[in-house]
């Protein structure tokens, strides 16, 4: 069935994944004459509830810190069991016990309405306190893994250093064998797993946790396709010391994940938006609910081919990876997106580049590291970076009507690879992106009115030469602020990564050489 198993690591990642799962849940159809375009078995696992009824729940494992799950309980309505004394059931002590419980977090009005089967009230940035406040999905109890060693948003013991996450994973894995306890049950029930997707952050302690998790994954499942969506926090309002810490964390995450991931896609909010796009987007950059919605719309659309029933436009994560990794080690990709009303075709107002140079879309989600030399300008590009390979996914009522001519057969792709031309692959689907009541009203039409119901989206995943200068700039910055012990190793690994995106191509663009 080509199942995909998801790992969600941390608060920001769980915001992203919650939007993702809400979207997947919306694809279920219940009328006899209505068939979904989505193969639900890819992301959902069948099971039986406590009352013997059939259930469908996400193939996912969700990690968060103490307090990070909000009002979400490990045992939900589908797996409700009689309350028992947790001390009596797990302790060898035969005497009296005293159990101290923290005050439970109250359900949001949105969740209360869902539980009661009523139309939920509109969500706001004030009413969304945790990712569970806008969650529409039931999870299997095995999916919920709370890490009690650290508390969410703690000022006394902040979870923000890469080494802290690395150490936490090592301790937990030594004590519990995380692969066996958390992941293996989901892997073993899959018939033919096509891959694992990981939602993580790169620039905090979760980057260290994810890097070591990925290393263990490779030990256990050496040939499995693994995609990592590496989110990065906004730099606005963050002091210099913490921004430097984040850059060091990111550098460590990139170099470690690069060794193990089949594809790593660093993502953050676009650093610049055109005037037209600023009119068509209305979101609060301080709201994780808003920012994760925008990113999740792009992620869900870019991976749509991996779960379509349409054989002509369906593909596996592994095949998409092969299309992007043209030279063997280009496993860091860039994500872009354009959107429009469902009846229109998403485009770029500056479109007009030759097809061989790749298509540039409105929003570029490549993180812009403000403190790094050579930060990008205008729409995320210095001038026109060399695009090695690009995978486009278009969705909406007119996606197939407006689809450009495809890239040709495998022989043509081999020819283009040999000549150093951009290798592209295109997928189209008439399935629009659904705007649910759990999704903020961030998309606008040309008149500034909130788009309702559905939108058309085009996404791009690409490997390009701009990454070379970004990595060299990151290297130049972070090696000045880390200890001598790590400086040489980290610096060399970043330089080697940069070479993979610069080798075999030279241009007049202002990339510059290594300044060491």
TrEMBL record:
Q: Which organism is it from?
A: Gnomoniopsis smithogilvyi
Task: Say yes or no: keyword Mitochondrion present.
Answer: yes
Indicate the segments forming the Misato Segment II tubulin-like domain, all copies. 2-115
A Pfam cross-reference name: Misat_Tub_SegII
Instruction: List localization entries.
Output: Mitochondrion
Show where the DML1/Misato tubulin domain sits. Answer: 120-308
Record-given protein name: MtDNA inheritance, partitioning of the mitochondrial organelle
**Is Mitochondrion a UniProt keyword of this protein?**
yes
Quote the function comment for this protein: Involved in the partitioning of the mitochondrial organelle and mitochondrial DNA (mtDNA) inheritance.
InterPro entries referenced in this protein's UniProt entry, alphabetically: DML1/Misato (IPR049942), DML1/Misato_tubulin (IPR029209), Misato_II_tubulin-like (IPR019605), Tubulin/FtsZ_GTPase_sf (IPR036525)
A single GO cellular-component term on record: mitochondrion
In the record, biological process GO terms are: mitochondrion organization
- Family recorded in the similarity comment: Belongs to the misato family.
Give the source's domain of life in one word.
Eukaryota
Keywords for this protein: Mitochondrion
Q: What is its main location?
A: mitochondrion
Which portions of the sequence form the region Disordered? Answer: 394-423
């Amino acid at each position: 069935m080509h199942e995909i198993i998801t790992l969600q690591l941390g608060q920001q990642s769980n915001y992203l994944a919650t939007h993702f799962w809400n979207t997947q849940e919306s694809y279920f159809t219940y009328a006899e004459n209505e068939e979904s375009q989505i193969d639900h078995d890819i992301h959902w696992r069948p099971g039986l509830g406590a009352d013997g009824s059939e259930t469908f729940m996400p193939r996912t494992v969700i990690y968060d810190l103490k307090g990070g799950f909000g009002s979400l309980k490990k045992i939900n309505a589908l797996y409700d069991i009689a309350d028992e004394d947790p001390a009596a059931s797990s302790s060898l002590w035969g005497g009296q016990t005293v159990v101290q419980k923290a005050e439970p977090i109250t359900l949001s009005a949105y969740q209360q309405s869902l539980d009661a089967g009523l139309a939920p009230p509109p969500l706001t940035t004030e009413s969304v306190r945790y990712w569970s406040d806008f969650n529409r999905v039931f999870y299997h109890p095995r999916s919920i893994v709370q890490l009690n060693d650290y508390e969410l948003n703690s000022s006394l013991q902040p979870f923000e250093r890469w080494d802290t996450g690395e150490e936490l994973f090592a301790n937990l894995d030594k004590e519990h064998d995380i692969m066996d306890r958390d992941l293996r049950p989901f892997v073993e029930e899959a018939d033919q797993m096509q891959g694992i997707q990981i939602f993580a952050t790169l620039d905090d302690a979760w980057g260290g946790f994810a890097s070591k998790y990925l290393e263990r994954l490779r030990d256990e499942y050496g040939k499995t396709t693994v995609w990592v969506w590496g989110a990065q926090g906004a730099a606005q309002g963050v002091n210099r010391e913490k921004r430097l810490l984040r850059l060091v964390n990111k550098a460590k995450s990139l170099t470690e994940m690069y060794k193990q991931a089949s594809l790593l896609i660093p993502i953050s909010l676009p650093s610049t938006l055109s005037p037209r796009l600023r009119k068509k987007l209305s979101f609060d950059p301080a709201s994780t609910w808003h920012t994760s919605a925008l990113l999740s719309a792009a992620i869900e659309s870019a991976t749509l081919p991996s779960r379509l029933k349409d054989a002509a436009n369906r593909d596996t994560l592994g095949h998409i990876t092969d299309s992007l990794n043209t030279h063997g080690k280009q496993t860091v990709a860039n994500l872009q997106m354009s959107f429009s009303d469902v009846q229109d075709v998403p485009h770029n107002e500056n479109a007009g580049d030759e097809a061989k140079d790749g298509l540039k879309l409105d929003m570029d989600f490549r993180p812009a590291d403000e403190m790094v030399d050579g930060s990008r300008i205008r729409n995320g590009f210095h001038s026109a970076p060399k695009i090695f390979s690009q995978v486009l996914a278009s969705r909406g009522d007119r996606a197939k009507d407006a689809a450009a001519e495809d890239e040709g057969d495998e022989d043509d792709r081999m020819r283009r690879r040999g000549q150093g031309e951009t290798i592209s692959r295109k997928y189209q689907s008439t399935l629009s992106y659904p705007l649910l009541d759990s999704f903020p009203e961030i998309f606008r039409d040309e008149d500034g009115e909130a788009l309702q119901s559905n939108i058309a989206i085009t996404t791009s995943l690409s490997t390009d030469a701009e990454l070379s200068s970004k990595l060299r700039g990151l290297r130049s910055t972070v090696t000045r602020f880390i200890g001598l012990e790590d400086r040489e190793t980290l610096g060399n690994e970043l330089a080697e990564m940069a070479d993979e995106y610069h080798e075999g191509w030279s241009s007049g663009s202002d990339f510059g050489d290594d300044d060491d």
